[in-house]
Design the sequence.
């Protein structure tokens, strides 16, 4: 269990990205998939609460009835059309502006990655100390980049809005590389049996992650 960071609660809004179209999952919102009696969104929320006490929101463009039952604000993209994780981050920045005025950062977490590192925020905050506050921090693991696990300063709102809705650039790494950015490496995380950033993109991934969850539970 990693330490919580209570002094940072007001400075950060954590957004769970659940606003995708899930084309390869036949359009089923991945946040609603069940693994060992819990939905993915429940597993991810439970994991976030092990290290974070601040404001949590869910970026969602459908399944509002299901996702709303957990009591967290639901934040839809600013424009219709399933514009990807950047749209969810942008919408979260706008939500923070009006609902969490003391917040400086958006911590983004993908809803389809149930084993993500619980020292995510701790390592991001360590990285902030050696970077400019507007530097985008992106998680990496074994030389693979995981940009949906990232930390963005809310000052970047106008730039991101322009990138997404004027330049129509939706790929998250195109946005990241247009700014100051730094990778935060999680390769040293202790559990080597399970890739902490393994995520569900296909029905085959879903089957595999169910097996991984069983293995994870057996090792607790």
Sequence:
């Amino acid at each position: 269990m990693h330490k919580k960071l209570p002094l940072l609660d007001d400075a950060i809004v954590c957004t769970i990205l659940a606003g995708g179209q899930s084309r390869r999952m036949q359009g089923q919102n991945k946040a609603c998939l069940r693994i060992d009696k819990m939905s993915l969104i429940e597993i991810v929320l439970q994991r976030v609460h092990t290290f974070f006490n601040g404001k949590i929101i869910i970026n969602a463009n459908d399944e509002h009835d299901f996702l709303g039952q957990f009591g967290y604000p639901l934040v839809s993209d600013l424009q219709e059309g399933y514009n990807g994780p950047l749209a969810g981050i942008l919408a979260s920045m706008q939500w923070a502006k009006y609902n969490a005025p003391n917040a400086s950062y958006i911590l983004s977490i993908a809803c389809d990655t149930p084993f993500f590192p619980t020292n995510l925020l701790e390592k991001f905050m360590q990285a902030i100390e050696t970077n400019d506050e507007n530097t985008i921090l992106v998680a990496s693991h074994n030389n693979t980049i995981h940009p949906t696990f990232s930390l963005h300063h809310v000052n970047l709102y106008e730039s991101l809005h322009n990138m997404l809705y004027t330049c129509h650039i939706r790929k998250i790494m195109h946005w990241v590389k247009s700014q100051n950015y730094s990778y935060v490496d999680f390769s040293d995380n202790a559990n080597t049996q399970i890739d902490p950033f393994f995520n569900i993109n296909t029905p085959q991934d879903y089957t595999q992650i169910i097996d991984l969850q069983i293995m994870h539970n057996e090792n607790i």
User: Anything to note?
Assistant: Strands lie at 12-18, 34-35, 38-39, 55-60, 74-75, 105-110, 136-141, 144-153, 181-185. The helical segments are 40-48, 64-68, 85-99, 120-128, 157-165, 172-177, 203-219.
